[in-house]
Amino acid sequence: MLANPNMPLEIDYSEVDGKSYRCIDGCALCCLCQPELLPTEEERFRKDPRFADAIADRHISPDVTGAALKLKGAHGACYFLTDKRCRIYNDRPHYCRSFPINVFVGWRIQLNINLSCRGIGLEGESLGGVSRAIITDYGERRLSSELESAKIVFTEFVKNTRDTWVAQSFSSVRGAGHSLSGELVDELGLSRVLAYAEHGRTKQNAPANEIAKMVRRTEPDADLEERALIDGTELFDLPDLSLLPIYIDDKNDWKIFRLVGKEILGYSLSEDGRTEEFSRTKPSEVELLPITASGRDAFKEYMAIVNARDCFLGHAAYLCDMEGYEYNFAQVYLGALANNALDLWWRASFLARLNMKNELDAREIREGIIFFDMDLMDLPTIGAFI
Question: How confident is the model at residue 341, as a pLDDT?
Fold first, then answer.
């Protein structure tokens, strides 16, 4: 069903309301994200001699076809960053102004927070207020147009799941994810969810409680340590440094990690793209560390946020489509949720090992989220960030 021009837009602010943030001097995480230029911004930048040389020939992501700003040294900071200060702050592009807010358009409009930003939760600006200002700047006409296009994609996905007898309502898969929140921070529970994703036999349009019961009855057979090792190291096995996960530590040092041979090498990253090695880790030595009670609470709180994100549901839909609708959507969705929980657990354990920690409390889980969330938001999805 397309957007009714006479009906108000459905906009979900639940992730941003009640939260605040403050930009941390010396962080500049947002300046390591290559910003795209809106068509009007590209025109303005190309006409201005102060800005024209900053436009890149291509974006680091092959999926982005529009204009973007250059990165120093091809994988360093933004062209306009000097000593972690923006030289065109008052003229910076829309994407820079919106950070750490993302606007996702699916069957509705939803505002998400980039939790890799260390300023989230600090006393400062209201994220709800910033989000509403962003929505106002877009204007109802553009938002309605984007929503109409995105709804077509989601409607087609739902039709495909029904035609192939793998359909589940969005509320049922999310309800099952909520019911299984305790399993997502437990090795046995995670193994059950992953085994269910691969071997489950789920009826079309099953209610959330039935899906959760099926998961709990599934015989666990997934080797979490091996799976975490493969998936974790795969993220660091990339040829282009600009595509590697970035981690800003609590001293605002920029760090990237790359698989070289049989070791993960840690590098400090400079504005101009230069790197300096600071650590070497054998992936096989990174074990999933035990999670304390406070760590479990922080982990479950984050996974509840992920479970409520439309972009993540769109990612599961993307996977379902890529797999040719071979698996029931509940299995695909919960498998994706479990895989991302396992990825977070491994990343948090990896960072904790570098810091000589032997368990994951709330602080260590938070560091894992800082390292992880930006990459989660970049996963392919149906619908679109605008």
Answer: 97
